[in-house]
Amino acid sequence: xxxxxVLQQADIDRALTRIAHxxxxxxxxxxxxxxxxxxxxxxxxxxxxxxxxxxxxxGAAAIGSLxxxxxxxxxxxxxxxxxxxxxxxxxxxxxTTVVLVDDVLFSGRTIRAALDAIGDLGRPRAVRLAVLxxxxxxxxxxxxxxxxxxxxxxxxxxxxxxxxxxxxxxxxVVSE
Length: 176
Known about the structure:
Structural class: alpha/beta
Number of helices: 4
Mean pLDDT: 94
Order of helices and strands: EHEHEEHEEEHE
CATH class: Alpha Beta
Number of strands: 8
Shape: globular
Low-confidence stretches: none
Radius of gyration: 16 Å
Oligomer: single chain
Number of domains: 1
Distance between the termini: 6 Å
Strand content: 25-35%
């Protein structure tokens, strides 16, 4: 069965704009806002959301990246991947509201690893989760706060997010 597109560029743009608005609406201004993208595509999505936030409310959020490779509990089963740089805003994460940004939420293991990684960086006031696609099938009790699209899928299917910055096109496709 060929790959089936479920989101195109306009859909992704709309979803990210909605997520940015929801982040602003949920932020009570009690703490500085930091967006941390999880490599690879989560970083691109965090930068895009950050750009939207900057247009809506200049200076609303700092942007960084959080590599979770060495915090994963499934390294033996996953293909080898080179760690990516972790970039934290100069002000750090202590006392901030951190919004983790990733492309697809599936088992929850990547987010569990991200929570461990954040703990080594400092102590944020709160941690939220923004994902472009939530496909269900959680193995851990993790739930996103901001979702671009809920996409029910079979565990055997693959959900691939492609972004212009990394793949040359903006789309989300499902394949067997």
